[in-house]
Amino acid sequence: VSGCILYGSQFLGVYYMDEDCNVVEAVAGGSICASVIQVGRDPDGASYPINDVNVILKSPHLMPKEASDPITGSYLHRSSRLKATIVHLQGTAYERGYAHGLMLAPQIMDMVNLFLLEDRVQSLAFYQEEMIPTLGAQVRLTPQLEDGIKGMLAGMRASNHSLLTPLAREVEAVDLVALNSYETALATTAGGSSAGAEVQGMAGVAGPGPSSCSQFVFWGDAVSQEELRGGTIAGRNMDGENDLRKLTVNNFVIFVEKPSEDGLQPIVHFMWPGFLTVSSGFNAQGRYLMENSGCNPPGRPSMFMPLKRDVIHHLLLNSSLPADISPGDMEQAILDYRGQEGGSCSDGCLFVHALPYQASSDPNLTAGFVYEGDRYGGMMRRPNEVAPHTSQGIMVTNHYFKYHASELDPLHCNGIEASFSSLARYFTGSSKVAAWTRLPGGLGVGSREMKELLQSVDHGTTEHSVIFKPNDMSFEVAVASPNGLWDAAYDHWASFTFEELIHAEPDQSLGSQQSLLVGRRANNRISNRKHTLVKAL
Q: Which residue from 409, 67, 36, 446 is spatially nearest to 224, judged by alpha carbons?
């Protein structure tokens, strides 16, 4: 706006002003604010010349419509039902990582440069001086993730796309680790200590606010018998990753992984390019595991910590864990990845489990439960221990009720204050569930009711929502519209089955041109296998 200033925090957008610099019309976004905008006039009203102004426009890359890696048979395509890209990855961890990097190198670089460095961290000095050294000192990668990173870097190099970062160097293994642990890393590197959900970067700029994910699980008599016949239904809102360039909605990915290693099983999960780990997913047994951020206690980070999404990835891939695993056995499986301090989450975590419902007289078995944990340990929360009081349902937001917490004092959680957002969403969802239990027919939760619950805890920051039915092995997904507030649970829902994705074959129309584009670099595969993990870790 020539000759005018917009003071204070303004919604990002285009503003039209009159001669007196009064806003007469605005075309602005509804959720993203920008800092002070000054063009041609100082605060005293005096004009000044604008000379030698350099403007750099950073435009993210569009997701490809289709691509394939003919060596492994991995491929991707845009969904015809949803604003999503479906990425089919098969082979070993290295091969799956290679195909991922080969087909999505530009989009992975966008996630590193624009999402991680510019939107999440907001300070290159902080990233280089605190975040990278801390990750290098504390992180312990599983062999699956280490091999996947090796493969991804090799595939990205083979793509011939620029791998240059704003750090005046090419992307390295540690950058992919930081991307896959963006929330954990931010929470544990401010001043060398664990700092909770909000972080002050080196530039004194507040980092991303607290996460706002919400989840519900119901089964047995608590679900719609007509629709589910007693089977389990689980729903989740993924909230808080509201980046300026809207990568988390425009570049939403449904990953379909078919590992070739012994003892591993196919899984489906949801995230973005560059993620070799899992935040929300389920496997061929019908085991659902999705994480929410929890209460991160004060204190220094633990050493030799796994990435919590790496833990989830392994728990889902592991075919030796039974579909009807008990909460106690699952807790032990989680703690098998423990770090030096005794826990498997470097910051606060909530792991929500949903299993196919099977009637059983064993009191140790239940179709839904929650692990509340951190870097020191954790506890399982079972149904009916806190409100909403139902023996066949459970709800989760971002605070604890059992682990270093109490239902009698919900304002405090693991040594810190529970966020207002988490408390408010829990009260809203729990109250709705409690009201339904008082209806003559009881709960009766089906897909329609689950969507209503997810909508009730959606407050404009939900990038995607998922509903999974383990007994039917079917699921529904909604992705927020990139314009305006992000209310995925109110948006278009698309239905899929696990079997159709796992057994899908590449569309013959992928054929020649795109396959050749990827295939002509396949000869690099043998030499690229020799790359070792960058020792920045």
A: 446
Give the number of other Cβ atoms within 10 Å of residue 374's Cβ: 27
List, run by run, the mean pLDDT of 10-residue segments along the chain (537 residues): 47 58 54 49 62 73 96 96 97 98 98 93 88 87 97 97 96 96 63 37 38 93 96 96 92 98 98 97 97 89 89 98 96 96 92 94 91 96 95 96 89 90 96 96 96 95 97 97 91 97 74 39 38 33
74 forms beta bridges with: 69
Q: What is the pTM of this model?
A: 0.85
Q: What distances in angstroms separate CA 304 from CA 182, 279, 341, 342, 478, one per listed residue?
A: 17, 21, 9, 10, 36
Structure tokens at 211: 């996460």
Q: What contacts 90, CB < 8 A, 6 or more positions away?
A: 72, 73, 74, 96, 257, 258, 259, 260
Q: In degrees rounded to 5, what are phi and psi of residue 116? A: -70, -60
Write b or e for each residue in 461-495: b if 16 or more Cβ atoms lie within 10 A of its Cβ, otherwise e: bbbbbbbbbbbbbbbbbbbbeeeebbbbbbbebbe
Q: What would the pLDDT profile of 173-205 be if each residue is shown by its tens digit?
A: 999 999 999 876 555 444 333 333 333 332 233
Q: What is the secondary structure of 17-80 as a DSSP string?
A: E-TT--EEEEEEEEEEEE--EE-SB-TTS-B----S-------PPPPPSEEEETTTTEEEEE-S
Q: Of 29, 100, 106, 105, nearest to 61 (Cα)?
A: 106
Structure-token pair, residue 265: 């099983």
CA–CA dist 13, 9 (Å, integer): 12
Structure tokens at 368: 């839904």
DSSP state of 534: P
Question: Nearest 5°: CA angle at 217, between 212 and 222?
Answer: 140
Place of tokens 């700092």: 195
Q: Which two tokens stand for residue 44?
A: 């005293």
Cα–Cα distances in Å, from 125 out to 109, 189, 191?
19, 13, 13
State both tokens at 154.
């090799």
